[in-house]
User: Fold Gamma-glutamylputrescine oxidoreductase from Escherichia coli.
Amino acid sequence: MTEHTSSYYAASANKYAPFDTLNESISCDVCVVGGGYTGLSSALHLAEAGFDVVVLEASRIGFGASGRNGGQLVNSYSRDIDVIEKNYGMDTARMLGSMMFEGGENHPRTYQTLSD
Assistant:
């Protein structure tokens, strides 16, 4: 297994034993390839919805880009909501605004669940 690039993030990460290598055929409802933010979040939400989920990761969980960034959660868009409203209408602006805040509220719960 390749070692993580030397960085603050690698040095401050919680230590855990590597998972066993998959050496047999298994069945599942959904196979998620990649144990980064997107893969783990997808796997968590699918499992919470009742699916039997398997995550395959070539190295370590969070090994790639997900484990090499500052991890800021910025719940905004590249344009202000009034610009979105002007271009796409009030309903779309409200929907996107709601999604933005919902994501900001949901992320800490997802992170905590994945960390446990």
